[in-house]
């Protein structure tokens, strides 16, 4: 196996991914991680850690280019929703340096990041999804016509990691939450993303009370579907799966194939769905590794090893898929020493 150097951008708290890739490389290459803060926990476990500017800083892409050249990077993997459109825009110039940027096409990224477009996308391919409204008047009209019922979800149209989600039980709470969401978005990390259409930056969505699932839909680096890996969520924490059990079910796999065929996304895509009354309701999709990936990994699918094989032109990957159902796992925090 030849040496393969992987660069993780916006590494943040994804220590598990850093370590999964290091284990799969087994000394045949290095994991480089960058973040705008050297105190980011994932940087501690990386072979090489570098500080870079904010993704919105004009110096960000030049800084990535410098890292790619100096560390002989073979592949770039982003771990942040907000960064994906930026990397996509600069993909060619980064790849001209010899590093493969493992990222989906711009349209798939835009559909996933804009939750209104996500809703319309699912509808267009025949996938059930919660009723969603772009304006508060549309939602109120639907309630008046008995097409929509409380409780409702109020959330940012452009969002990440369940940032600023509220539940309204009645009209008074709906009006208050909607107004508050507008104010909060303009003061949050979503400000830049939401500036595209600030007046329509909040969504009102039907609340589905069913079993909640996460799924990793894995395509190869050309966008061809490989397989999918499901987990039933048992507990959540800060917008990420905290406890889950692995699941294998053909009805879930078939829907995943439909989504993969239509997105042609590259690599892993993390999705959320509900199961209620024998119907599957897809909620969101994120074309990257998500916080639920460790549950898939520990249940037997070694996606980092698959990525490394694909990067090196090796398509013999079934040996890395030992995914089994009925395996339950729980996350926990650990302390990381940070060098000052």
TrEMBL record:
Domain ATP-grasp as annotated: residue spans: 119-312
Designated name of the protein: ATP-dependent carboxylate-amine ligase
This protein's UniProt keywords: ATP-binding, Ligase, Nucleotide-binding
Keyword Thylakoid listed: no
Source organism of the structure: Flagellimonas aquimarina
One MF annotation (Gene Ontology) recorded for this entry: ATP binding
GO annotations of cellular component type: cytosol
Domain of life: Bacteria
Keyword Transferase attributed: no
